[in-house]
Each structure stands twice: as C-alpha cells, then as structure tokens.
Amino acid sequence: MTADHVALSREIAFLRELAAKKVEEDRLPAGLEATRRIRQEIAELDLDSNAVDLETKGYTVLAPGKAAPLDFCERLKEKILETDRRQRPKADGDGSPRGRLLWHLLPTDRLFEQALMAPAPLALVAFLLGYRAKLSQCTAAVKDESSTEPFDFHADQSRKVPAPWPTDAQFCTVTWALTDYTRENGALCVLPGSHKLSMDVPASHLRLHDHPDVEVVEAPAGSVIIHHGALWHGAVPRTAAGARVTLMLPMVRFHLLPQELFWASTTPDMIERNTSRFCALMGLLGSWPWGADGPDSGYTRPSWLTTREENRFG
User: Fold this and answer.
1) Helix/strand/coil for 125
2) What pLDDT score was predicted for residue 6?
3) DSSP per position, 23-66
4) Is residue 281 a contact partner of residue 133, using CB atoms and an 8 Å limit?
5) Where are the alpha helices (DSSP H) in the chain?
6) How far, in Å, are 150, 153, 250 from residue 202 at the CA level?
7) Is the pLDDT score of 31 beyond 50?
8) What is the pLDDT of residue 289?
9) Does the reported pTM lie above 0.85?
10) Are 143 and 94 in contact (CB under 8 A)?
11) pLDDT-based confidence at 300, cuts 50/70/90?
C-alpha cells in the first residue's frame, strides 16, 4: 500500500468520524419513525400531490419557487453558464442529444450544495429512497441547437441495478430546470407509469418519442423535476435558439455505489455547515471503503496529523 493510499484511507476515516459526530447531534430517523417523518415532511411542505404523482406516473414537477426562490435559480444558472464558458474547449458532448455535460460540480461552489439540500426535493427523495440515500452525480447540462437528435429512451437504473429490478425505487433523479423547459428547448419526455414495469427499456422501444402515451414535460424556469429511477424517459431534439440549462442530481439507495466519489471531495467545513443528511448524501455513513489497513473502528487522532494537516482539514 503506497503512502498516498494510506493518507487517503486516513483522511476518509477522519471525515467519517466527523460525520458520525454530526449524526450523534442530528440523528437520522429509521424504521417506523422514518415513515412517520417522511409523511410529516410531505404534509408540511404541501407535497402530497407530488408524492401521488411519483407513485402513479413516476415523475412530478415542483412549480417555480417551490424548491428555491427564483433569484437563487438565476444565480445557479449563471454559475453553470460561467463554468460552461470556461470548460467548453474540453466539455463532453457538444452536439450530443444530452448537451454539453459538466461533471462533479458540488465542491466547486456552495450554490450546488444549497441546491442539493433544498428541503422540498429532498423530502421527495426520502419518499422514494429513504433518509440514507446517497448523491450519485452533480452534473449540469447545457443543451443548445447543435443537439438536433432525440435522446433515446432509457431508465436511469439501467446498468446500475441488476435485473430483475425490485418494485421499490433504487435510483431517482432531481433535475433543476434553470431555463424554460419546452418541447422546442429539447425537454424531457416520459412514458408515465412505466416505472411499474420494473424493467429496462427494450432495444425496440428506444425511439418512443412519438408514441401517443408519451408526455413531454414542459415547465417554466425555476421548476424542479423529480423522477423514479425505473421510469422510461428520453428527450426531444432542441429546435429553438439559445441553450437549455439544467442541473441534475441523481440519487441512489444506501446500498448502491454512487457514480461520483463525493467522499473524496467532501471537506470538514461542508460537514460542519450542513445537517447529518448531507453526510448520508456524501456516502460517509458506511464503514467502507478501506484499503490494506482494513476498516477503521472509530477515528483516533494519529501521530501523522501535524499542525499543517490540521489546518488543511479545517
């Protein structure tokens, strides 16, 4: 095991200990208490109809202002566009049906952290995945008129959850629509109720865009769309000028591996300023991963933690 691996293993152990202390102060509900808490949050945040939508249609839309004030959404959009301008020479997906994708944005600005922790979307994530759900990606998409092809139908659980799929959601996606979400702008399209099939989209159904039962999800800027990980969905081509800007926050159940390693970019300051739910979202509540030194059994400040390293950890 190299010195770098040892340092990483110890740093993760340190972060997990901070997370454990946060959970002691702010305990996450479990079992029947979690069920009661979720029902209470759904009622208090006036999300009952959204929960019904998730059960029946497999997706729901929070109206502008429900997840966050519109000025916050505008600042989030501008931050993504600024990042896109800076990264465009090496951005992934110019002309792709998905648009240009900007990866692992969470540690780059607190705006993304605040979007992740917005109460209304997070309550619906708990409704689908429980309080120990983990963030799988923090990705933005900038889709302009170069995206002239439809995005094939798929389910977000594809290639992440082995078949046969359980009936409970294993994955869900929270999408912040930061510009108007319309057919002309290349919006999401879904087959409502398809999450009940608990199966991947067959090859014969990848181009369902013109099927009479398919719905194009149109919503004004500032809306937030949440959908079940087994829902069959794609996107229509963009035909309008300008760019569609979205922030996508896919989530997984506690036992699944996220696509991005957020524990590797989490800082003590991020843990300190958030609730224990943030620690769960970062994947810091399990005892894994570890290297050749085995799992940590609780963090004890080691001799290698010098004053310089203490400053680094905050």
Assistant:
1) helix
2) 67
3) HHHSPPP-HHHHHHHHHHHHHHTT-HHHHHHHHHTSEEEEPTTT
4) yes
5) 3-25, 31-44, 48-56, 70-87, 110-116, 119-129, 268-273, 276-281, 307-313
6) 17, 9, 22
7) yes
8) 63
9) yes
10) no
11) very low
